[in-house]
Structures are given as structure tokens and as C-alpha cells.
Design a protein that fits this description.
Elements lengths: L1 H16 L17 E5 L2 E7 L4 E7 L2 E2 L5 E9 L2 E9 L4 E4 L8 E8 L5 E6 L1
Antiparallel strand pairs: 1-2, 2-3, 3-4, 3-7, 5-6, 5-8, 6-7, 8-9
Keywords: Signal
Length: about 120
């Protein structure tokens, strides 16, 4: 009985360690102090400041170039809706001139050329 328990425990730990799918698209740890979400195999980190909002995009742990991307940030808060365009800001960063208040719900929409847009939802 004890031998079976040890074998079962070893098998369980081995399966947990061999599950690479959790890290298949890179780390989901925030690198810029924001909130990270994964959508369509891309990692999006939304960073809010007192003056604007930034989005950092990664693909398989590598910075995803934002040149040629377009997008919007929509903020739903206090019974109102505000929207601002996202603009490429070098490397894997996009910025929008919009402030996100505590308690807001946020929709980030990013589009590349003729591809369908990717929408990422956040709550603060």
C-alpha cells in the first residue's frame, strides 16, 4: 500500500513537471508593473499611469513588434464610456492617451492589417 502511494505521488509530480503548456507562450509575469492576459497565443501587459495607458505585447516570450498595428482602448467606468486610439511606441509597446480609474472595465482591441482584431478584457 505504501509503495503504491509513493508511486502515485511520484507519477503526479512527474506529470506536473512535464506540463509545458502552461509556459508555451512565454511567461505571464508582468515585466512593467501591469496586468497580464493571454489571448490568441499572445501575452498582453496593460500598464496604467496617471497620464496614459501602455500595452506591451509578447509572442512566445519574445517582444512582438507593434509597427503596423492599430488598436483602441475602451474604458467603461462610472456609467460612462471613453475610448482612445492605441499607437505604436517602439519595440513591443503601444500607448493611448487615456486614464484608467480603479473599478473600471477595459477592452483593448489590437489589429494587424487584414487580420481580425484581438480583444483583451481587463477589470480593475
Amino acid at each position: 500500500m505504501k509503495k503504491q502511494l509513493v508511486m502515485a505521488l511520484g507519477l503526479t509530480l512527474g506529470l506536473c513537471a512535464a506540463a509545458p503548456s502552461a509556459y508555451a507562450h512565454g511567461s505571464s509575469a508582468p515585466e512593467h508593473g501591469g496586468v497580464v492576459k493571454v489571448e490568441h497565443d499572445l501575452v498582453f501587459e496593460l500598464v496604467r499611469t496617471d497620464s496614459n495607458t501602455s500595452v506591451y505585447i509578447k509572442d512566445h516570450g519574445e517582444p512582438y513588434p507593434t509597427d503596423g498595428l492599430t488598436g483602441t482602448v475602451m474604458v467603461l467606468a462610472a456609467g460612462g464610456k471613453n475610448e482612445a486610439p492605441l499607437s505604436p511606441a517602439g519595440n513591443n509597446k503601444m500607448t493611448a492617451d487615456i486614464v484608467i480609474a480603479d473599478g473600471a472595465k477595459v477592452l483593448v482591441k489590437v489589429k494587424s492589417g487584414d487580420h481580425h482584431p484581438v480583444t483583451v478584457r481587463y477589470s480593475f
